[in-house]
Amino acid sequence: MARKKDSASSPKEPGRLKQMWQVFQMTRRYDSNAQWLMLLGFLVPVVAGLLLALFTTEGNGFTMALWIIAGVLGGILLAMVILGRRAERAAYSQIDGQPGAVGAVLRSGLRRGWIGTEMPVAVNGKTQDAVYRAVGRGGVVLVGEGPSSRTGKMLEDEKRKVSRILPNVPVTLITVGHGDGEVPLHRLAAALRKTPKALTKPEVLAVSNRLGSLQTALPIPKGIDPMKVRSQRGRMR
Prior knowledge:
alpha+beta; 2 domains; 5-stranded mixed beta sheet
């Protein structure tokens, strides 16, 4: 009985069509061009199907119907692809500039063959600038989150650490932002894929495991004396 009550009281998840409508509404709110691009993506295959039906079927009604149906289905598919990409870009625009945005992209925005860290490998406690790491066929990519004027030194420091451990693995530096030479957040995954391939799939896993096994000590916040903390713990005991 309790299970029936719980299932009855729990809200139902929206259906697939309702979910797509919610995604479309969210995307249109942040990207006014999305609906027009979707409409164009739908019409192009439909028009192509109509033209093929008129000029290649020689009056065969069955073949004409197939071409028209194929055009409509192709238009729906292309519109959904456009919606997915614009929705992803709209979602990234909502977190762009916030601490941890790069980690969110590396966690969910990378395709197969790439291994990203959600947590940064280096953080500036004062400015909240951070460096993230991803490993893929292009080698090791270090991504700076923050202005390049501040993250440049952090990236170079991390590059030296990686090169010291893996001297034969290429290391690429990327800074996420909207300035000169920086990569917008929604194009980060594409920028990683554009790096020249240098590693095989087994080597990618080996490099990722090697870097993941390294333990870095967390910085101690200013104003905290480790010796005093230990002595206090001793007194409490």
